[in-house]
Amino acid sequence: MKYLFAILISFFILGCVKNENLEPKQSTQNTTKEDKALVQANTPKKPEKLILTNSIYNSFYTILPCSNCEGIKTILTLNKDKTYTKTMLTMGKKASLVEKNGVFEVDESAIILKDESGIISYFVPNKNSLLQLDDKKNKRVGVLAQIYNFEPIDKAYKDSFFARFSKFKDKNGFLDIIITPSKNGARATFYSSLKNGSPLCEFSSELFYDKGIFYLLDEKGIALSIHKINGDLFITANDKICKSAHISGHYKKSKGYKNIFGKGFFSEITSDSANRDVIKIYGSKNIKRDNTKKENSYIATSKNERIFEYTLLNGIITSIDIYSKEFKTPENISLKSNFKDIKNALVISKFQSDTNNIWLKIESHDMLIKLKNPLGKSVANLNEIPEETQIEQITLMWNQ
């Protein structure tokens, strides 16, 4: 028993010693965890990069101030491969169009652009737009804040080009450009007056659209570029295009072109339009088949009055006969006009007549004008036609 009691006492003492050795060790582990947590709390977190949405990979524009010109129209395009393009139009007496390229990266507070010469600029997303910061990455205040706010270029921006714009040279002379949509981009057609020796501009061409600008290219590069400036246009062109008319410069927007017609367009209808497009514009209830003709002819009406008739061949519009006196050319020729008005405003390419009618061909507008022959005999010379002879019919010839 004495031996057994001694063994039990020995185990008890050893257990206490072990417990005493464990307690300090456990306390050291807890202290280490607390110290680590404290260190992590006091260590600043690495800033996260600015998160960009897909909408930022787009084209944005603004007009930057210029000391000796109207302004510098600037278009900035950010690409998903972290490259960018900046196109700058200086609107002055000697307009210039410059394009610069570069790369960009993103840090915790801004988009950092670096151009080919190493110049750095800073931007941040601003709702749907893009805001340019100053050199210290601070937002500008006051008027400058709005000037350096680049608005997005979207479909509405592109559609705003489709209208009539005028550049007045004097009180008697004008130069108009009418831009209408087409399959590949747009068609631009220039018109000018002939009063006081003002030169006639018969230029018309298809344009392509890229990053907010309409272009015409030739073998040497950009022959013409059309830029949107608030509600107006600014055009740059080389000397080969309407050289005597001086088409470069600032054009003011007119009220629209819904009552205007010319080469390849009649109001909102263009040479690319199909029957479904006409129905969409004027409404199916206002389009009726003309059963008096063998061709596929349709009459468009408004308030039960005929406004025009168009003929289809394989679904394509080939001609339009105008009935409404409200439609006019950019030179103000309409069904209200007479032969004197035609001579003063348009170039008559060809003519022919019989005892009842006189037909005048206007190639610059792809237009055929019919006059009621007041002489009752065939006309051999245009000088024989009385100036007061009224227009009886106007036909636009398309896709022929």
Summarize the structure.
By secondary structure, the chain is of the alpha+beta class.
Pick out its properties:
400 residues, alpha+beta, Lipocalin, protein yfey like fold, 8-stranded antiparallel barrel, 8-stranded antiparallel β-barrel, 5 helices, 27 strands, elongated, disordered N terminus
Alpha-carbon Rg, integer:
37 Å
Oligomeric state of shown chains = single chain
Counting DSSP E segments of at least 2 residues, the number of strands comes to: 27
The count of domains is 3
Discrete helix count:
5
The amount of helix comes to 10-25%
Mean pLDDT: 85
The largest sheet has its strands arranged as: 1-2-3-4-5-6-7-8
Give the percentage of residues in beta strands.
35-45%
Main sheet specs = 8 strands, antiparallel, barrel
User: For this structure, what is the CATH class of the largest domain?
Assistant: Mainly Beta
Write the layout of secondary structure elements.
Elements: H1 2-42, E1 59-64, E2 72-78, E3 83-90, E4 96-106, E5 111-115, E6 120-126, E7 129-132, H2 143-147, E8 149-152, H3 155-159, E9 164-168, E10 174-181, E11 185-192, E12 204-210, E13 213-218, E14 221-229, E15 232-237, E16 249-253, E17 261-262, E18 265-266, E19 269-270, H4 275-282, E20 287-289, E21 296-302, E22 305-313, E23 316-322, H5 339-345, E24 350-353, E25 357-362, E26 367-372, E27 391-397
Written overview of the protein:
The protein has five helices and 27 strands. It is an alpha+beta fold. It folds into three domains: 98 residues, Lipocalin (Beta Barrel); 100 residues, Beta Barrel (Lipocalin); 133 residues, protein yfey like fold. The strands form four sheets. Strands 1-2-3-4-5-6-7-8 form an eight-stranded antiparallel barrel. The longest helix has 41 residues. The protein is elongated. The termini are far apart. The relative contact order is 0.07. The N terminus is likely disordered.
